[in-house]
UniProtKB/TrEMBL annotation:
Chain intervals for the UniProt region annotation (Disordered): 1-22
InterPro entries xrefs: DPM1-like, Glyco_trans_2-like, Nucleotide-diphossugar_trans
Protein name from the UniProt record: Dolichol-phosphate mannosyltransferase subunit 1
Family assignment from sequence similarity: Belongs to the glycosyltransferase 2 family.
Amino acid sequence: MSLPLATSSASFTNPHHREHSNDSVSINILDDHTTATAHLLQSPYINLHQQHHHHLSHNSTMSGQHKYSVLLPTYNERDNLPIIIWLLTKTFHENNIDYEIIVIDDNSPDKTLEVAQELQKIYGENRIVLRPRAGKLGLGTAYVHGIQHATGDFIFILDADMSHHPKFIPEMIRLQQSKNLDVVTGTRYAGNGGVYGWDLKRKVISRGANFLASVLLRPGVSDLTGSFRLYKKEVLTQLINSCISKGYVFQMEMMVRARQFNYTIGEVPITFVDRVFGDSKMGAMEIVSYAQGLLKLFVAV
Ligand SMILES: Nc1nc2c(ncn2[C@@H]2O[C@H](COP(=O)(O)OP(=O)(O)O[C@H]3O[C@H](CO)[C@@H](O)[C@H](O)[C@@H]3O)[C@@H](O)[C@H]2O)c(=O)[nH]1
Ligand SMILES: [Mg+2]
């Protein structure tokens, strides 16, 4: 498998990385699309983590024989999609990692799919795979749909709205490889992880959801509801097949099931930054169905 940028970028040329040497927090307030895009491309708007990506720069064979499939569910993400895909491809190329990005769009009214088709023309059909569905069928089933088309032996799941920055991907791969882990999950609630841009209500909901799940189900993972994760493909397939949840509660059930099956799980602290473009799809209904799903699991597990 040949990657066009693979050898020329053996030393990490990303300009961000010099800025990462200090561990200060810097949040840029982005006021319009142009500056937002420019900021996102030039510097990470959060600069908090203490991971040392430059270790990876010397490792030109990071992926070995492996291929990574990214499942990217989208609903009204037309403004975010070009940026997240640009950052993903850049990350994979700079680290010499074989990949494909599977976009699962649920017939978004903002025509996200048209943007995805344009991106597919730019990056190629082997890199951007489109697996749209006819309507909004929920986040959990979007992953189920996407994995059926995945050709990689490892699967990344992340949000398309830039809340999950691809800069954490090399660290997640490195941790997976160092211990041959079954699952590596990004965590906002351990180490240098964190959440930026959420109001108090949303923070309380997220913490509450995690607290309830960890007390009732005791899976021993610090961030149960986050969704920036790396799985071995066969592990994800088995977990998905055993999950009963359909909506956002899916993320949490996946971790609970992973513990049941005695899969090994590692955690990498991530900074979750609230989206700049568009709106969250998490509404009252998702919260109610999370609570219902949690209770169902508590009774069943
Ligand atoms: N295809 C599809 N995609 C969807 C759907 N609902 C949401 N998405 C996509 O799923 C991603 C996450 O949706 P958001 O609406 O941005 O979620 P959030 O409120 O930011 O929630 C985040 O935090 C939650 C709590 O930690 C997480 O559970 C969730 O996964 C996500 O990381 C985005 O890429 C969004 O377009 C759906 O029904 N269908
Ligand atoms: Mg979001």
